[in-house]
Design a protein that fits this description.
mainly alpha; Amino acid/polyamine transporter I; 70% helix; Lysine histidine transporter 1
Length: 455
């Protein structure tokens, strides 16, 4: 079924809705399909929130691991390739007249078949979405901890300022927000949170590169590789690839975002969706490139894995930037959690025949938030784990799985421009998938040697 071209005359242009009343009621209850009145600008800030994570602050460090030439090349090529694959997904959302692929795995089923499509897409999508939410639990907790440390440093005479609070407690504080926000029913209901998150991402990115310019090029700046051995340089280079791949990981929720936009044959959803994507990618460029290149230019290979740590002063500005990070990852967590909620609730209601009630949603979502909080507290170096496991999922779902689907469905002529472009993306993505996890594995081994649970 999945290899049939959308231009096939057997496709029914006047497809009749054959769903039962119960199926329509369930679809109206599920998070992804319950609301289809989003505007194009919803697409813009949802995509910014999904794409521009706190990982942007580690891009100068990735540049230090990659070096000027490879670093600039990987950053720019990744931006171009992921914009191209995002365009493909927007185009494929309604490739079959009368049908919308509202979820990533539904498109996978169309391309590869009912069962194979699920097995190819769902595990990778879950690794990315659940993994990112766990990382954001840790990121939110660390940013709150950093704000607390900066405030306590400024008020050393304040006897009420307790400095030695564990990271675990800050992660719990961050999680408490999501025990409330996770009960918003669908994407459109979190649009306000997503808008705030998108504004915050642009704000703390601007603070990061603006404060770097203000500080100026450091006297002892060195642009050579930090490691003194060839093996160390290679492992660091691979880790840098993984950090860049992590930064371009917004494709896992693209179809779900487009599903919230209304569509008619005269005005298909791909038009407003693409307009929002273009705006979002301009914002991505404004966030990523200045932070990565200016941060590395000012600090060289001595830059910290979080550019805000390298800055430190002025204290009030860095504290404010960290609070912006907290607000942003609150919105990002919700963007990545919503498709997971949709999967869980679909299985419970459609497969296990639970009634679509508010308390089913209440229990399911609270368990998910509690799970991500628990794993974040247990493995606060989860970034290393994500670099290892996520390398197998981030690169495919973002860099080359859309290209494989495009080749399987549209079947462009061999050696045509489309065929060549897709194969270039596939080769680049496969290399990332194979190489990036190696750096993450080394990071896990190094950190696990000295790690103590709940210390």
């Amino acid at each position: 079924m999945g290899t049939q071209a959308p231009s096939d005359p057997n496709y029914n242009n006047d497809k009749v809705d054959t769903r039962t009343a119960e199926e329509k009621a369930i679809d109206a209850w599920l998070p992804i399909t319950s609301s289809r009145n989003a505007k194009w600008w919803y697409s813009a800030f949802h995509n910014v929130t999904a794409m521009v994570g706190a990982g942007v602050l580690s891009l100068p460090y990735a540049m230090a691991e990659l070096g000027w030439g490879p670093g600039v090349t990987v950053m720019v090529v990744s931006w171009i390739i992921t914009l191209y694959t995002l365009w493909q997904m927007v185009e494929m959302h309604e490739m079959v007249p009368g049908k919308r692929f509202d979820r990533y795995h539904e498109l996978g089923q169309h391309a590869f078949g009912e069962k194979l499509g699920l097995w190819i897409v769902v595990p990778q999508q879950l690794i990315v979405e659940v993994g990112v939410d766990i990382v954001y639990m840790v990121t939110g907790g660390r940013s709150l901890m950093k704000v607390h440390e900066l405030v306590c440093t400024k008020n050393e005479d304040n006897i009420h300022c307790t400095k030695d609070i564990k990271l675990s407690y800050f992660i719990m504080i961050f999680a408490s927000v999501h025990f409330v926000l996770s009960h918003l029913p669908n994407f459109n209901s979190i649009s306000g949170v997503s808008l705030a998150a998108a504004v915050m991402s642009l704000s703390y990115s601007t603070i990061a590169w603006g404060a770097s310019v203000k500080k100026g090029v450091q006297p002892d700046v060195d642009y050579g590789y930090k490691a003194h051995s060839t093996s160390g340089t290679v492992f660091n280079f691979l880790s840098g690839l993984g950090e860049v791949a992590f930064a371009y990981a917004g494709h896992n929720v693209v179809l779900e975002i487009q599903a919230t936009i209304p569509s008619t044959p005269e005005k298909p959803s791909k038009i407003p969706m693409w307009r929002g994507v273009v705006v979002a990618y301009i914002v991505v460029a404004l966030c990523y490139f200045p932070v990565a290149f200016i941060g590395y230019w000012m600090f060289g290979n001595s830059v910290e894995d979080n550019i805000l740590v390298s800055l430190n002063k002025p204290t009030w500005l860095i504290a404010m930037a960290n609070m912006f990070v907290v607000v942003h990852v609150i919105g990002s967590y919700q963007i990545y959690a919503m498709p997971v909620f949709d999967m869980l609730e679909t299985v419970l209601v459609k497969k296990l025949r639970f009634s679509p009630t508010w308390y089913l949603r209440f229990v399911t979502r609270n368990i998910y938030v509690a799970f991500t909080m628990f794993v974040g507290i247990t493995f606060p170096f989860f970034g290393g784990l994500l670099g290892f496991f996520g390398g197998f999922a981030f690169a495919p779902t973002t860099y080359f799985l859309p290209c494989i689907m495009w080749l399987a469905i549209y079947k462009p002529r061999r050696w045509s421009l489309s065929w060549i472009a897709n194969w270039i993306c596939i080769i680049f993505g496969v290399l990332l998938m194979v190489l990036a996890p190696i750096g993450g594995l080394r990071s896990i081994i190094v950190q696990a040697k000295t790690y103590k649970f709940y210390n």
